[in-house]
Amino acid sequence: MKPKAASASGGNTLSRRIWKARWFYLLMLPGLIYFIIYKYIPMFGLITAFQDYSPSLGFLGSPWVGLKHFKQFFGYGSFEKLFFNTLIISLQSLLWSFPAPIILALFLNEVRHSAYKRVTQTIMYLPHFLSTVVVCSIAYQLFSVDSGILNVILKSLGQEPVNILMNEASYRPLFVGLGVWQSTGWGTIIYLAALSNVDVQMYEASMLEGAGRWKQMWYITIPSILPIIMTTLVLRLGDLLDVGLEKTLLLSNAINRNVSEVFDSYVYQRGVLNGKYSFSTAVGMFKSVVGLILVVTANWLSKKLTDEDIY
Amino acid sequence: MQAVSKKRFSAGDLFIYGIIGLFSLACLLPFWYVIASSLSMTPGFTISNFTLDGYRYIFSTSTLTRSLGNSFYITIAGTLVKLFFTSMMAYALSETWVPGRRLVLNLVIFTMLFSGGMIPTYFVVKGTGLMNSLWSLVIPGLISPFNLIIMKNFYQSIPAEIKESARVDGCPELTLLFKIIMPLSTATLATFGLFYAVGLWNTYMSALLYIPDSNKWPIQVLLRQIVYVSSSIGDEAAVESEVALLSTNIKMAVVLVATVPIVCLYPFLQKHFAKGIMVGAVKG
After folding, report:
1. Superfamily covering domain B54-283
2. Nearest Cα to A221, choosing from A301, A108, A140, A128?
């Protein structure tokens, strides 16, 4: 018995544990290789931001130019516009599409007819599953100047047609509005789940005290889902610079370019379409670094506020 | 609950029910517009001058069917492949005693925080020979780190006794995985399969970046081309007169065809997705 016990404790050395885990390493390996090739090599590829990259010379052979591309980006005037556009559209989206699902969830929570609740929920979740292309295609059809339903109605009322699609002033409302349309219903899920955990006794007690529906909502319901609201908000702040490349590309055109161009679409335009690889990598790198800072800050904030670590 | 539902329908209720009703209507009406317009000579919310010309037209050439075929192929094959590799890695990472596990997990999490961005990724995709291949829509995003971590949490929640008793009986690790763990996790696999399937069916950006060959376009890219080029909006410098003449019913028929598979999956999506999102929210 004694020698056996000794060898068993000896079996807990690192090399024995690694040998014991060999099958798990095998299972991990394909995934690990994927992350290295498609996630870590591109990170390494960021060095092209400091080069004049040419595909024929490769990541390692291209000439080094230091901060040339960053200087060009910050000095040329495009930076201010991109930063402003990205931030404005992101903040406007946040302003509308963040509170909307909370309000809708609070309302849904008040619905007492379960059939009504079920049917409306089913309908409101649907837009979430549509592709960006489908959503934008429908928008193009609804708002087009000559055949769109909006302008058909306006014309029949004797009004001037409005061109929502090719107009600087309407670009942001359109972008934000489509986001609200697509994500509000689905966004309620997380809040509804939190709401279902609220202690019913609190409502009963408050009813005895004579609190009405709106008072209950304000003093019981909202405070009890406040932690999840904060977590969601912090997460959203973390990707403040991500405004949705697909939607931007699908809704932008020569006429609204001044307000629609954001970091991601600029990188696509300059890098993929115009072949300015190193310059657009530098722009992308700036965005990634700021994004990282934002996420880390958001996580730190979340820890401070709710004691919960998101990552 | 009984007492609550006996309450009178107040003005506040009317307001709340009304807002919810209006928003649902706003979500539904565009769909109805698409359906009605695809079946009418003149676009609108009512079917006027019923016609199937739109559908007849889009299926008269092989362009749309080929594109649909590409999308179906990549959605089905891609979902299986992504699910296979994600669950495999998630299972391996669920064993907390494995040396180096924390390191691998941190490597995965870091990719959620920072990325090389579009251009370097583009060159890696090119370098690995995926340009113009349908697999460029799958391989560069093979494992979603978010799904991986939720799945890992799921495997971790399987009682350790199940695995231990099998191991004591001398069951090899891989047999354990396929004979015991997999059957236990069918619901989870279905949920993440649906996640991946929707993503793949709706894929647009990757195809725009990696597939210049129009024969290999998935449906979303073709749809974009049909709707945008023919609306003479966007950056298309030369609008071909032939395409410009496409009528609304044709465009709406394509929108509908690109949406129908999602709508068919919808009952499953709604049920499982809501569950999946909650698992993520609780365990994140």
Report:
1. MetI-like (1.10.3720.10)
2. A108
